[in-house]
């Protein structure tokens, strides 16, 4: 993990009270023990709730944890292990990120989950507006009713993902893999689906007005 960068951000923070807890949390997330990680993630969620001035530092810690512990894998390895499930502590971190108070996010900042391998993650109703999910592997993920407006999903793997009633307005899905994805009732208004693979995707009642479907693939 980018431990020194994160520790430096904590040092520079204005408020002193939870600083020691944050330093310890960052160090403990390095030990790769799931039980420890779960306890630390729960503590970080409480700090973010009780000390809003640390909100973004904690989101940075959690997204770094996800990216570095569920990192992008070679396509051959992914294909040979399609049923892989997201680790329980990774899911816990994602859940905190997904239900955070996005009004506390700084302007001109975005959640960065690019290249993350989070196949099968439960992100039902998640707030992932304008999140960077470039080349993320979300195959089989539950994103029903998630807010992905303006999200960057270029070259992301969303094969068989559940995007029922998801808000993808203005999302960038160029070259994304949406094979067999459930997009029933999804809002794709002005979404960019250039070169997206939609073979077998369910588009019942999906909103596609203004969407860029140039060279999108619907049939074999």
Tag the structure with descriptive keywords:
single chain, 0% strand, mainly alpha, Pectate Lyase C-like
What does this structure look like?
The longest helix is centred in the first third of the chain and has 17 residues, at 34-50. Mean pLDDT is 89; it is low at 76-81. This protein is an all-alpha fold and 220 residues long. It has 2 domains: 3-104, no CATH class; 106-220, E3 ubiquitin-protein ligase SopA (Pectate Lyase C-like). Helix 2 packs antiparallel against helix 3. It is built from 6 helices and no strands. It starts with a helix and ends in a 122-residue tail after the last helix. The protein is elongated. It has helices at 3-12, 19-28, 34-50, 55-69, 75-80, 88-98.
Q: What layout of secondary structure does this protein have?
A:
Layout: H1 3-12, H2 19-28, H3 34-50, H4 55-69, H5 75-80, H6 88-98
Helix pairs in contact: 1-2, 2-3, 3-4, 3-6, 4-6
Tell me, what is the CATH class of the largest domain? Mainly Beta
Mean pLDDT over the full residue set: 89
CATH superfamily of the largest domain: E3 ubiquitin-protein ligase SopA
CATH topology of the largest domain: Pectate Lyase C-like
Q: What's the architecture of the largest domain in CATH terms?
A: 3 Solenoid
What count of structural domains? 2
| Structural class by SSE content | mainly alpha
- For the secondary structure, the number of strands is 0
Shape from CA axes? elongated
Question: What can be said about this structure in brief?
Answer:
The chain has 220 residues and is mainly α. It is built from 6 helices and no strands.
């Amino acid at each position: 993990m980018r431990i020194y960068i994160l520790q430096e951000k904590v040092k520079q923070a204005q408020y002193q009270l939870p600083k020691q807890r944050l330093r310890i949390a960052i160090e403990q997330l390095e030990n790769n023990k799931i039980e420890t990680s779960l306890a630390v993630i729960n503590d970080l969620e409480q700090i973010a709730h009780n000390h809003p001035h640390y909100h973004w530092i904690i989101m940075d810690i959690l997204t770094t944890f996800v990216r570095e512990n569920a990192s992008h894998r070679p396509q051959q390895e992914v294909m040979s292990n399609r049923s892989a499930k997201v680790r329980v502590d990774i899911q816990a971190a994602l859940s905190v990120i997904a239900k955070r108070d996005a009004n506390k996010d700084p302007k001109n900042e975005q959640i960065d989950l690019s290249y993350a391998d989070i196949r099968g993650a439960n992100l039902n109703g998640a707030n992932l507006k304008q999140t960077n999910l470039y080349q993320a592997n979300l195959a089989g993920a539950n994103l029903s009713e998630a807010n992905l407006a303006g999200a960057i999903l270029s070259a992301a793997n969303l094969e068989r993902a559940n995007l029922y009633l998801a808000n993808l307005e203005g999302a960038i899905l160029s070259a994304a893999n949406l094979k067999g994805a459930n997009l029933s009732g999804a809002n794709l208004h002005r979404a960019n689906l250039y070169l997206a693979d939609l073979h077998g995707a369910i588009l019942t009642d999906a909103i596609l007005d203004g969407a860029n479907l140039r060279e999108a693939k619907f049939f074999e």
